């Protein structure tokens, strides 16, 4: 079986975990937490980073640090994981959805302004599948309406826009280290920022609002979270970060191989790179134009499954999520690009461990499944 994605743990992971266990430093106060935060900040070219226990709470913590809460609205792309939207809901604010661009599959900056109201406080671009968003266009809107930008960079470690790394393109950003992400700690997340005030708030809210300046300990002036990362997870994270550049190059190579093998195939639509961006190809997805391809998604997926190739359907649009409609989000409006991706898109295997032969094999199966349409 060729899986969609499996962790790649070929560096110092075991060595550092052993060291953490051997010394008894397994809680969040162990030395690897700080070391991981520092290495990760350096990797993203940001000043500060705060390790937390997953990517969803990293987003939520970032929103809380910006002061976002009840009565506020946050612009979120319709085509993303539910975690982006839930993180907004948990602050008490409301996510407002914008359709994505049909080339890049990222938030369509041209459709953001029509969704802005007096309640809008922030825009949350998601660099989907490792492809950076059109940040200049988003910046321009944020400046015009005085909105914060919070990047959901969970899928885009090391991706660049105009020479700057993701995480460094906004007020504050969040990453995930879930097992299927480019860098992983099994479960984990990180908040990054260049703003010292936001950094201090993140540290404060992350750990139950313990006040370092209070006259007496155990006096808490605000309601905080406990979203600390353990030293064991951080030990893995540090080892992963040491390999980040190498993993990035492997992902880019794999992404380009898929592109080369599938590019001119009738009915197969691939994600286009954001101009001025560097895509890191977290996931390689394809969108079927079933008429031109001459077959359905279900048939193709079953065919691949019979040959031991795992696939997975794309996300379903946020405007169709029962949970979010119940929460009071507006499900109306047109989201044709997201709906098309949800109906006709799916992921192909995208692990770092993929061999070129395997990619070729997968692409050949996709090519051969249906005979090319007869010339008319
Ligand atoms: C994975 C992911 C998250 C959530 O991360 P978890 O660590 O699973 O909580 C958020 N946003 C995006 C875009 C993701 O891909």
Structural notes for this entry:
By secondary structure, this protein is α/β, with parallel strands linked by helices. It has 2 domains: 13-243, Aspartate Aminotransferase, domain 2, CATH 3.40.640.10; 245-368, Alpha-Beta Complex (Aspartate Aminotransferase, domain 1), CATH 3.90.1150.10. 37% of the residues lie in helices and 14% in strands. It has 13 helices and 14 strands. The protein is globular and about 85 Å long. Bound molecules: pyridoxal-5'-phosphate (PLP). The site of pyridoxal-5'-phosphate (PLP) has 14 residues, from α3 and α4.
Separation of the first and last Cα atoms: 39 Å
| Text of the CATH class of the largest domain | Alpha Beta
Q: Give the biggest sheet.
A: 7 strands, mixed
Q: Work out the helix count.
A: 13
Kindly identify the CATH topology of the largest domain.
Answer: Aspartate Aminotransferase, domain 2
Distinct bound molecules = pyridoxal-5'-phosphate
The CATH fourth-level homologous superfamily of the largest domain: Type I PLP-dependent aspartate aminotransferase-like (Major domain)
Helix content: 25-40%
Cα Rg: 21 Å
The helix-strand sequence is HHEHEHEEHEEEEEHHHEEEHHEHHEH
Structural class by SSE content: alpha/beta
Strand arrangement across the biggest beta sheet: 1-9-8-5-4-2-3
How many structural domains? 2
Strand content: 5-15%
Average pLDDT confidence is 95
The assigned CATH architecture of the largest domain is 3-Layer(aba) Sandwich
Shape: globular
The number of E-state strands comes to 14
Indicate the low-confidence ranges by residue numbers.
Answer: none
């Amino acid at each position: 079986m060729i899986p969609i994605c499996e962790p790649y743990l070929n560096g110092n992971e075991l060595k550092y975990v052993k060291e953490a266990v051997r010394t008894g430093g397994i809680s969040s106060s162990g030395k690897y937490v700080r070391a991981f935060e520092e290495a990760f900040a350096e990797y993203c070219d940001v000043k500060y980073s705060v390790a937390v226990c997953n990517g969803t709470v990293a987003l939520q913590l970032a929103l809380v640090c910006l002061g976002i809460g009840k009565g506020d609205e946050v612009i979120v792309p319709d085509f993303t994981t539910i975690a982006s939207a839930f993180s907004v809901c948990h602050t008490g604010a409301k996510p407002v959805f914008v359709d994505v661009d049909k080339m890049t599959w990222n938030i369509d900056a041209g459709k953001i302004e029509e969704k802005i109201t007096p309640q809008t406080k922030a825009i949350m671009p998601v660099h989907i599948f490792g492809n950076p968003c059109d940040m200049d266009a988003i910046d321009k809107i944020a400046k015009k309406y005085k909105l914060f930008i919070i990047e959901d960079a969970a899928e885009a470690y090391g991706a660049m826009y105009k020479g700057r790394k993701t995480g460094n393109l906004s007020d504050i950003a969040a990453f995930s280290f879930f097992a299927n992400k480019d860098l992983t700690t099994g479960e984990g997340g990180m908040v990054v920022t260049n703003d010292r005030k936001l950094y201090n708030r993140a540290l404060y809210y992350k750990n139950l609002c313990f006040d370092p300046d209070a006259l007496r300990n155990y006096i808490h002036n605000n309601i905080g979270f406990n979203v600390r990362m353990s030293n064991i997870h951080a030990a893995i994270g540090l080892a992963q970060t040491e390999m980040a550049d190498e993993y990035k190059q492997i992902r880019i190579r794999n992404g380009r191989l898929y592109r080369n093998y599938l590019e001119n195939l009738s009915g197969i639509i691939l994600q286009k790179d954001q101009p001025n961006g560097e895509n890191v190809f977290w996931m390689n997805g394809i969108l079927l134009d079933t008429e031109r391809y001459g077959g359905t998604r279900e048939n193709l997926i079953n065919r691949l499954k019979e040959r031991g190739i795992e696939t997975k359907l794309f996300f379903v649009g946020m405007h169709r999520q029962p949970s979010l409609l119940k929460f009071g989000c507006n499900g109306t409006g047109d989201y044709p690009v997201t709906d098309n991706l949800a109906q006709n898109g799916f992921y192909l295997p995208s692990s770092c461990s993929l061999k070129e032969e395997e990619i070729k094999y997968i692409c050949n199966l996709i090519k051969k499944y249906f005979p090319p349409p007869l010339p008319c």
